[in-house]
Amino acid sequence: MIQKAVIFIFIFLAAIIQFSLFPALFPLGICPDLLLMSVIFWALRNGFEKTAARAVLAGFLADLFHFQPVGTDILLFSLAAFGASSLAKRFLVSHRAWGFFFTSGVVAAGTIAYAVSSNFVGNVFHFGGEYGQAINSGYIPDWSIALKVIFNLAVFALVSRPLEKIEKTFELYGQRMPGFRK
């Protein structure tokens, strides 16, 4: 129960930081996705089964702070968690140097996929007048997405260490002593 409360508090504070503090710190309008990086970290570490509830909570809070229809970021975060978990199960290597490059690649791919799909879904569901008008205005990536990837890699590096410490603490907390019966 304590673990769920701490994770909820972390996700809530990450949402507040991402949507309140980061727009003031990054005036170009390219803010790092703290919630997405947390979801990708949990998916790489724990797998999709244990990360799904966290991805739904992070997506729900992102939808509330974005003032979007609820479900948009829930779907995108769940897909990002599923993709990262699938790639981790298939390709993650144990060597630290290659694991770092793989993780960086997953973060970059997740950032690009989230940016493109989020923009596409936003264009489709923000009906300006006619339904077909939103589909014709496609998304062409520019250099801002490369800057967003760099920001997200930096945020992932900053967030992964504290999240790893929290996860290890709760793993030790959740273990039973030998000979102890419940």
Question: Helix and strand layout, with pairings?
Answer:
Elements: H1 2-25, H2 34-46, H3 48-66, H4 72-91, H5 96-125, H6 131-136, H7 143-174
Helix pairs in contact: 1-3, 2-3, 2-4, 2-5, 2-7, 3-4, 4-5, 5-7
What does this structure look like?
25% of the residues are buried. This protein is an all-alpha fold and 182 residues long. It is built from seven helices and no strands.
CATH architecture: Orthogonal Bundle
Q: How many E strands?
A: 0
Oligomer: single chain
Number of helices: 7
The radius of gyration computed from the alpha-carbon positions, rounded to a whole number of angstroms, is 18 Å
List the helices and strands in order.
Answer: HHHHHHH
Name a few traits of the molecule.
7 helices; Arp2/3 complex 21 kDa subunit ARPC3; 182 residues; mainly alpha
Quick overview:
The chain has a single domain (2-174), classed as Arp2/3 complex 21 kDa subunit ARPC3 (Orthogonal Bundle).
